[in-house]
Amino acid sequence: MASTDSSPTAPTPASLAGQEYEVEVGPVAHGGHCVARAEDGRVLFVRHSLPGERVIARVTEGREDSRFLRADAVRVLEPSKDRVPAPCPYAAPGKCGGCDWQHARPGAQRRLKGEVLTEQLRKLAGLSPEEAGWDGTVEPAPGDKVAPGEVPAWRTRVQYTVDENGRAGLRRHRSHEVQPIDRCLIAAEAVTELGIEARAWPGMASVEAVAATGSSDRMVVLTPRGDARLPLVELDRPVSVMRAEEERGRGEQTLHRVHGRAFVRERADGRTWRVSGGGFWQVHHQAAGVLVDAVMRGLTPRKGETALDLYCGAGLFAGALADRMGERGAVLGIEASKRAVHDARHNLADFPRVRIEHGTVERVLPRTGITEADLIVLDPPRAGAGRAVIRHIAPLGARRIAYVACDPAALARDLAHFRDAGYVPRFLRAFDLFPMTHHMECVAILESAEKRRR
Fold this sequence. Notes:
By secondary structure, this protein is of the alpha/beta class. It has three domains: 20-81, CATH 2.40.50.140; 114-143 and 280-453, 3-Layer(aba) Sandwich (Rossmann fold), CATH 3.40.50.150; 157-267. It is built from nine helices and 22 strands.
């Protein structure tokens, strides 16, 4: 006979949201916040704060049994010398979650990002900046050095979420709630000129605005809620219009052309690149050029070499390699997105010795039969390449490997995997290609550990 457990259910630990602590703010942590410890020993991750400040921190997430609490600095009792008034009225506790560091001087933002990268390298890869070949600086993009209180308008793609009233805005931090806005200060001027925020979007779940760099192409991607009809798009500039189906599962989002071209034309490294609606391209208007320059300087391609471009997207690095390696050089690109594969094949059609394969790197690369390559570029998604991919490419004996990373933790984890596979950093560069946020881009150039010992 089955027994029944009549023991009382343990009560759910109480939420601490709304509780306030007076704390001294400690070091910056990965994710756009700083670490503080309350008098009762609780660890708080405090947004809108800076190291060394004394603040009143109001808990936004966490319960009595939580290992740590998330909080906002709602009052600054002792400010840092690096603090400035946030230029954007929506960069405040409980409002837009897009920017993390508008309350910090631009130079201080880059210094904080450098501290995060230093800590991730130490903790996850066991590397000092010197061992990683990094000088400790986070470099701004050309034109992004602005005075305290100013904001560079860098973002060429903005994903607006639409509230139940049809008003476009941006998500609040760690929330699906929409913060209606009148203007996003970090949006490129060509995005702002579309006037997305000034009109209603009834029935839409989201509106993505795209303003290409190096051409006048503009695109709006509309995602309706359910079967809602698309509104008539009347904006302040001519645009192409695409309709996207709401994402279900993990497949690639389906897009349909409504008006105009199904792509925009970007410009980088002396070439024009077709990027389809929903396709990946660097968001900062200078990022593609900055990263190509860093990768090519690090790899020093030679005429007639062979190369792999893994996670190749629209073919940016594959094209740069093919151009520099000449007619006898050969490049294989691998990309999981069908849309990006079509773009890459179109963009690189004038290079007969460039081949683009569709599929994940871990599945396609073993099937190619490739046993060696002179150069390898990896630009993986935020989660990184991972141990399995690195174990497969290390035996190819590349003279140099360029690893492009948008997440310092993933970079550090993969550098540890590379070390286990026999490759170590020759040098590392970090770039502030997401000003006012906690994000950054890094380019690590790796060589065989045996070669480095010679």
